[in-house]
Design a protein that fits this description.
82 residues, mainly beta
Length: 82
Amino acid sequence: MIEKVYAEAGFGNESFFSTEIEKGKREFRIKGFVLPKKFRDVYLRFWIFRRTFIISSCDGFVFGKKGRNKFKFLFGIGGFGR
């Protein structure tokens, strides 16, 4: 099972520096900036109320909707492995 790692810095998560780790359908967040072993992309993520907007070096521009209201402004580095 491939472990996806998203190291993020910004406003909206519980701490300014945090890392989200996804293993299959499970995901969890830890405090601190843990860089992935294998780099995939860098991104900016905006989440305003129920709308999300992502500018990614890998996926380009991505728009989406979420089921809850939040405000987030994040810079992130995505990849695989810790």
